[in-house]
Design brief:
4 strands, 2 domains, two-stranded antiparallel sheet, about 525 residues, Glycerol uptake facilitator protein, elongated, mainly alpha, disordered C terminus
Amino acid sequence: MVDDTYYITPHEAALAVVATSMKKSRLKLHLLIINSIMGAFLFSAGGMLDLMCQSQNRGLIDNNMEGIINLLQGAVYSIGLFYVISMGMELFNSNILFFSVGVMRGAVTIMDLFISWFISFWVNLASTIFVVYLFCHVSGVTSTGNYVNGSREIAETKESFTFMQTFLKGVAGNFFVCLAVYLQIMVKPLHVKVCMIFLPIFTFVAMGFTHVVADMFLIPAGLFNNCNFGWGRYFWKLLIPAALGNIVGGSFFGIAIPWYLHLYVIEQDMKELQLPSYDEKDEQPLLNMDSRVIRTPTINTMANYNNVSDSETSSTINKPVRSPKGVFPVYDMGPALKKERTIASSYTQMNNASDIESVMSNAERNKTTTQNSDIPLPSEMMTGNGSLSKKVFRHFSFGGGGSNTDEINRRMNAAKITPKAAGMANDIAGIHTDSIDYNFHDRQSVKRKSISSVNSNISQPALNPKQSPSSMGAGYGSGTKSNGERTRLQNEVIVSGDSSSVSIDSYTEQDGDK
């Protein structure tokens, strides 16, 4: 872990849902199947404990105290979901949340959604039935004693509801499950995640709402003990309406809260109020774990880069590896391409008017048009990523490109690939390390001491002869430590010891986007 905060805001949590959907869409078929198998195995723990509460408390049932049993079942079922989330496995119901938000954000396609939902649903079903039959029924745990009557009671009670009633219970059930998954993303400590998962799961189980994967354990357990209906009735009267209801409830939650209220509405408000923008990056880009998006201040180095010659560029700009294509921008890596940047934040604000004017000079605008369509124009930076309809409907395609102008231009430019551009365009397989880089931290410590020394002693910042005060941001050319001076130091434009040259230790978006 890099960030030491325990909680993230709803906006970052919504972006973490998007980042997780991108991560899950990268799973190869065999990994998706294995994860779905293990997800079913782990989630079955909740079904086992639910059945135990029903079967081993006959005295409460005989004395008409079923409400206490419902509360006990609600209290134990969250254990299975906690296992799944902490291990990063695949569960059909949680995938409904991740991919519905991912599609609305434009991070994944409808085909990604269909593959994930289809595979995880049927593999969860087959794996859960395998656990029920082999480890619970054949082993004798659920096929003897009170478990026989308990499993029959659960299955027959669920079958007594109509198709529409099961559907409506499924809508409410997955609304609460997605709430649990969403809440736990906001927190970092595992013991707090348990609490965030427990509360919504306790609510929906105690109330008797429907969770299709949970029923994959409870109903087959009754079927193997010869309840009063068969497998065909289970599939068409219980499995199908529960799955449809879960899709509606989970998608409604994902679209209404994470996507609309916590992404679109917040970013529109930021645009209208001209609030500061931030780089949102994934602190946990590894597979088989939920993403954790944290914010860092936006570093605008484009203005400085425009005034540095090619020879100076190669010697003064240190370029880390850019964040990979098709991956949510990764913490500790360089800037991402335009599509990944707009997925992470569709609202971007430049520091001031002089930055915008410097970045988009006539010469640079011509260069951008002919060489690099991924660099956003000032209008894109200030107003976000277009209208609501364009942001939503341009992503409803199987190929991921559709008729989007930016995508067409990108493909056209790709037909004129230079060796340098080809090398920069190679997909990077997700370079990241959780180990501590002591050399990096030592360098950062030296930089901080240099900045502190400059901040206390500098009276006039030295400028490159090719740079103008306006292009360096507000505050340059004055004898005080103004906001512009602090911005310069925060962006790690380090003044050398003799105060005669400027060394830029940052990554330029222009090179990163080529």
